[in-house]
Automatic annotation (TrEMBL):
<keyword id="KW-0378">Hydrolase</keyword>
<dbReference type="InterPro" id="IPR007466">
    <property type="entry name" value="Peptidyl-Arg-deiminase_porph"/>
</dbReference>
<protein>
    <submittedName>
        <fullName>Agmatine deiminase family protein</fullName>
    </submittedName>
</protein>
<dbReference type="Pfam" id="PF04371">
    <property type="entry name" value="PAD_porph"/>
</dbReference>
Length: 345
């Protein structure tokens, strides 16, 4: 790749801000809104320790309420900016733009969002990236609308041309497109040189059809952190063990096995009779830190220690996320990083 070629930055590269959307009574959070708001306050507060947070708000009332709640928590409001923008739900990892470095500037990729394969209403969320581009903070970037369903949680890059994803998710979205054609499209749109496919891995309660960001994440160009299951009686054990074998067989761009970091397995969490998808792999990398989902589980401490080994130069900051998995996602799913220089602040 030349110096002026498009490039998809890794999440650990310098960031301008983190994008997220405030929950309100018109979203799917309505039933447990008070509990979820506490998680959002902790999340925005953790982000603001390290960099700006751009918070989408559906209307002026939502903004006033969010501003008051965050200010009362003594969060540095100089690092919080509100963006007036309506949305169906708050999973901005999947509805926000995928941002590429493009020569001396940036290009926002606006893929189709179909509510994870038509499972949920998504008209406003499908328009979110394009409407963001109309705001002054983003208007200096290019915008490329792509008529292809792809969620940000389904893809993971090392910033050097390697893309990690799951066949289950991409095939579910595009059952009539073969693997070779899918790979060609992904490499072209996302400026990648190769695609690493995982055939195994899933979490009960996950309605994304096995997004990679709940399963395996790059920690460096030669390292991958992945969710493991050490309970042989758990329904996930065989599948996650098979995924670990796949990861062990992968090679980095120098032809070496990846350094692998296996995350501990939290105890099962249920909501009524439904098991919830709790994964420590759904962490968020920010400038100088990794924000880690915590579930009030004895394994939280071991997960924090493991992530510290994987990211020795960053602070590991637990954020309480048990309330989030009621809606089948966690911390990374709510957020989208914006590369340094891509936002006018």
């Amino acid at each position: 790749m030349t110096a002026t070629a498009a490039r998809f930055p890794a999440e650990w590269e310098p960031q301008a801000a983190i994008l997220l959307a405030w929950p309100h009574a018109g979203t799917d959070w309505a039933e447990r809104l008070a509990e979820v708001e506490e998680t959002y306050i902790a999340l925005v507060g953790a982000i603001a320790r390290f960099q700006p947070a751009l918070v989408c708000v559906a209307d002026a009332d939502v903004e006033a309420y969010a501003r008051a709640r965050l200010a009362s928590a003594r969060i540095d409001m100089a690092r919080v900016r509100f963006l007036p923008l309506d949305y169906d739900d708050t999973w901005l990892r999947d509805t926000g733009p995928v941002t590429l470095r493009d020569g001396a500037g940036f290009r926002m990729l606006d893929f189709r969002f179909t509510g994870w394969g038509g499972k949920f209403a998504a008209d406003r969320d499908d328009r979110l990236a394009g409407r963001l581009h109309q705001l002054p903070e983003f208007s200096g970037n290019g915008l490329q609308a792509i008529d292809f369903a792809l969620e940000g949680g389904a893809i993971e890059t090392d910033g050097q041309g390697s893309l990690l994803t799951t066949w289950r998710c991409l095939h579910e979205r595009h059952p009539d497109v073969g693997r070779e054609q899918l790979e060609t499209r992904l490499r072209g749109w996302l400026a990648q040189e190769r695609v690493l496919w995982l055939e195994h891995g899933y979490l009960e309660g996950d309605d994304t059809d096995a997004h990679i960001d709940t399963l395996a994440r790059f920690a460096a160009a030669d390292a991958i952190v992945h969710q493991a299951c050490d309970d042989p009686d758990d329904a996930h054990h065989a599948e996650l063990a098979a995924m670990a074998e796949e990861l062990a067989a992968l090679r980095d761009r120098q032809g070496r096995p990846y350094r692998l970091f296996a995350l501990p397995w939290p105890r099962p969490i249920h909501d009524g009779g439904r098991r919830l998808a709790a994964s420590y792999a759904n962490f968020l990398i920010v400038n100088g830190a990794v924000l880690m989902p915590a579930y009030g589980d004895p394994a939280d401490g071991a997960a924090q220690a493991l992530l510290q080994r994987a990211f020795p130069d960053r602070e590991i900051v637990p954020v309480p996320c048990r309330a989030l998995i009621w809606q089948n996602g966690s911390l990374h799913c709510l957020t989208m990083q914006l590369p340094a220089g891509s936002v006018a602040l």
